[in-house]
Amino acid sequence: MTNASDVTAQARTRLAGVIDPELRRPITELGMLGDVTVTDTDEGTVLRVQIRLTVAGCPLRGTIHDDVAAALDGLDGVARVDVDLTVMTPEQRAALKDQLTAGRPANPFGPETLTRIFAVASGKGGVGKSTVTANLAAGFAARGYSVGLIDADIHGFSIPGLLGVDQAPTRMEGMILPPVAHGIKLISIGMFLDTDQPVAWRGPMLHRALEQFVTDVYWGDLDLLFIDLPPGTGDIAISAAQLLPPAELLVVTTPQHAAAQVAARAGQLSTQTQQPVAGVIENMAAMTLPDGTVLDLFGSGGGQQVSERLTEALETPVSLLGSVPLDPVLRADGDAGEPTMLAHPDSPAATALDQVVTALASCGRGLAGRRLPVSPRD
Ligand SMILES: Nc1ncnc2c1ncn2[C@@H]1O[C@H](COP(=O)(O)OP(=O)(O)OP(=O)(O)O)[C@@H](O)[C@H]1O
To answer: Which top-level group of life is the source organism from (predicted)?
Structure first.
């Protein structure tokens, strides 16, 4: 006969290693583990484990079921494991919400935050800002950082597609649980819109939406948060600066001189918002064809030009963090919902993006554009 308390103890130990895919914490810490029973039957010992889902329509119920079953597979003396998915009671849900929000400020990304925040800006659309953002986030996540991403590009929300997410966020007790893809917690304005309708939101609505992403989304403890801003210097960029005061700007440009001038203007937004500029990323730079020919579709030098103009305007060094070549692999992976950093890490684009990740990881928070809190002595 199997010792029931031994089996139960072993099962609990193993279940402590099962991480909830949305909350990114062990299910045993979240009150998701219900009854664990061991019964001797004709076919042998049956272990029955009750798992309480946060909400009935939990989109990840299949994943949770499979993770629990895999964790309990091969337990000594157990002939069969039954995973019984139930739903938390309103009281259990309220207790979980309290546990998750206890001691956290309403805005977890205020001045005191330990999260490093990058707001990714570009002068104009189509320069690859979202592709770069998704890949940088994936690159950091692959290095073990805890990463969040807010897609605030209202008119061109492309991040869910780039990361292969079509799942809606789960709502629990007024909290929004963001889907997780490639290790990135992701929320997009596109997840809350009817995508067939053109978006005609005005500034205050956009501000409110972004505010909700900051305050109502359960982000947990993030090392890094990326925000994909709409192109240009519009309302959202100002709102992002207000809601996420420690954010640093990353400016994406193509090598084209005309694009660089516009990108430099977007970077100078930092003087208005007092955000530092972490650096410039040039995208769609020259690519080398298999026969050795160099194709510089968008010219060259734009990234360097933006870096110099911002260095001059902000009176502090703003470096060119990297130059990402035109690369059909980057485009194809984006269309397939796979960050190239993960799918083709040796491709020319991924190699350049990895250098940007290294540069950002190794430099501390920048001060360019930030007014220092000093007052003249008497
Ligand atoms: N280095 C690159 N090589 C090849 N294709 C690229 C590269 N960077 C981006 N692309 C492609 O260019 C297109 C535009 O990219 P993306 O949507 O990231 O731009 P964006 O600046 O975010 O645009 P918007 O702000 O208008 O949404 C996409 O099809 C993307 O796959």
So the answer is: Bacteria
Residue 66 shares a structural domain with residue 137: no
* pLDDT at residue 373 in the model: 41
Would you say residue 112 has pLDDT above 80? Answer: yes
Distance CA 310, CA 316 (A): 8
Among the candidates 72, 101, 130, a domain finishes at: 101
Tens of pLDDT, residue by residue over 249-285, are 999 999 988 777 777 777 777 888 888 999 999 999 9
Same domain, 50 and 156: no
375 CA from centroid of ligand 1 (Å) = 44
pLDDT in tens, 35-93: 999 999 988 999 999 999 988 877 788 999 999 999 999 998 899 999 999 999 999 99
Pocket test for ligand 1, best of 129, 130, 131, 135 (most atoms within 8 A of CB): 131
CATH of the domain at 64: 3.30.300.130
Structural domain count, the chain: 2
Residue 368 in any domain: the answer is: no
Q: Is beta strand 224-228 parallel, antiparallel or unpaired with respect to 248-253?
A: unpaired
Confidence of residue 370 (pLDDT cuts 50, 70, 90): very low
Q: Could you tell me if 148 and 254 lie in one domain?
A: yes
Answer whether 331 contacts ligand 1 (Cβ < 6 A): yes
| Binding site membership of 333 for ligand 1 (Cβ less than 6 Å) | no
Question: What is d(CA 88, CA 98) in angstroms, rounded to the nearest whole number?
Answer: 14
Domain match, 240 and 283 both: yes
Predicted TM-score (pTM) of the model is 0.86
CA within 13 Å, CB half, 209: 22
Q: Answer yes or no: is 110 within a domain.
A: no
Residue 327 beta carbon below 6 angstroms from any ligand 1 atom:
yes
Residue 281 vs residues 133, 214, 345: alpha-carbon distances, Å: 10, 26, 18
Atom 30 of ligand 1: nearest residue by CA position? 331
Residue 371 lies in a domain: no
Is residue 191 a contact partner of residue 169, using CB atoms and an 8 Å limit? yes
Q: What is the pLDDT of residue 198?
A: 58
